[in-house]
Amino acid sequence: MGSIDPPNRQFTVTIIGAGVGGLTLALGLIRNKVPVDIYEAAPDFKSTGFGISMGPAAHRALTLIDPSISKAYDALVTTHADSPGYESFRRTWFELVWTTADKCGEVMTNLKAKTLGQTSVHRGHFLETLIGCLPPGKVQWGKSLTEMRETAQGVSLRFEDGSSTVADVVVGCDGIHSRVRQHMLLGEPIRPQYSGMYAYRAVLDMATMIEAVGERRARVATMYMGHGGYVVTYPIMRAKQVNVGLFKLSSGWEHDTWVRLASRDEMKRDFGHMGDAVRSIVQRIETPSQWAVLDIPHMSTYTRNSITVLGDAAHASTPHQGAGAGQAIEDVHVLAELLGDARVLRREHVKAAFHAYDAIRRPRSQWVVSTSRDMGHMLSLSLGTVCPGEVELKHRLNERMALLWDLDILGQADIARRVMLQHFSWIV
C-alpha cells in the first residue's frame, strides 16, 4: 500500500512563546504535518521555575497531542509511588486536613482520582525535554514582540531586536502578561489582576519536611485548611523535596511588584493560628518569597481573524485547583486537532478553526478561572457568611474535582471539529 501524501498546507503557524503551551502545541502541530515557527522573548533557555502539576484530564491529553510529550512528562514525574510504602496513595490528589482548634490535625477527606492522582514535574526540566523533542533550531530566542498588525498578506510582527516577519496565522502562548493578547484586543485591555490572595512559596528537603510534620504528612500531598488561608505541600523531584505554598486571604496588595522577599515573622503573623504542623513548616522556611496571586478577567473572545491565544495568555488562573497548566494542555489538544485536520489547508480554514477553538474552550477555561477563586475561599473556610458543614464541603470538593478530571478529552475535540466544519460552509 502506498503512503498517503501529507495535506498541502498553504499556511505556517507562528507561535509566540516557548513555555509549556507553546512547545506542546508545536509538537502536536508538527506531528500533524503543520508547518510551525516559534519565537521566544527570553535570550536563551534557562532551567528555572517551580513544579507544575497535571490533573488526570490533561495527563490523558498529553499522549493524544504527541506521545513524545507524555513520555517526557512521565520520565520526570513525581507521584506518591516514588515514596516507598506509599504506593497505595497513587490515586490521591491531596489529603485535606483541618487546622481549626476543634479538629486540628484530623483528615477531612482524601481526594482521589479514578486513575492517577497527584503528579508534578519541575517546569524547567520539562521544558528542556520538550525542546529536545523539536527539530534543532526550531525555537528562535531573543524575540520580544513589540508590534503586531494585521495586513492583507498576514500578520506583521516586529521584535525588540529590530527584526520583523509576516506570519500567516499567530497563536499567542506568551503567558499572563501576553503581548499578543494586548495587541489582539486593543479595545478591550485585559491585564493581570490581584485575586484577593497572596502566597509564600518555598521548597524544603524531604528530610526537613519529615522532621517538621512526620513521615505521612511529608510524603502525601496535603492541604491544611484554616480560617483565612490554607497551606499546600506536595512531594517533588522524585520525593527528594517538597513544594510548599502558604495562601492568605487579603483584600489588597500594597507593594510595587508582584513578587517580593518576605520574612518568617510575616508568615508567623499570617499562619500562626493554624496548628503545630503549619507552625513547624513556617519555622523551617528561611528566605520565603511572597507572591501576589493573580488571574485575568474573562475575555470576550480568544481569537480575532488570524490570531488566537491559549493557556495563561487567554485564561491565567489562580492555582487553588492545580488546573492552570492542565487548561493550557486542553487548549493545545483541541487546537492541534483542528489545525491538524486534513481539510484545513488555507488561512480561511484556520480562521474557522480558531472560531471553533474559542467556542469550545473559552467557556470551560473561564469556568476554571472562576471556580479556582472559589476553591481558594473554600480551602480558607471563607464562603460567605455561612461556612458549609463537613458533609457539604466534601460533596462540593468531590463534585468540583469530577468536573475537572473526568472530561471527555476526545469528545471535546470532536465537538470543536463539528463547529469548525459548520463554519467551512461560509468560506468562499
Which tags fit this structure?
428 residues, alpha/beta, FAD/NAD(P)-binding domain, D-Amino Acid Oxidase, Chain A, domain 2, 8-stranded mixed sheet, 6-stranded mixed sheet, 19 strands
Topology (elements, then pairings):
Layout: E1 13-16, H1 20-31, E2 36-39, E3 51-53, H2 56-65, H3 67-76, E4 92-98, E5 107-112, E6 120-122, H4 123-133, E7 139-140, E8 145-151, E9 154-159, E10 164-167, E11 169-172, H5 179-184, E12 193-205, H6 206-213, H7 215-219, E13 222-226, E14 229-236, E15 241-249, E16 259-261, H8 264-271, H9 275-283, E17 289-295, E18 303-304, E19 307-309, H10 312-315, H11 324-339, H12 347-379, H13 390-405, H14 409-424
Helix pairs in contact: 1-4, 1-11, 2-3, 2-11, 3-4, 8-9, 11-12, 11-14, 12-13, 12-14
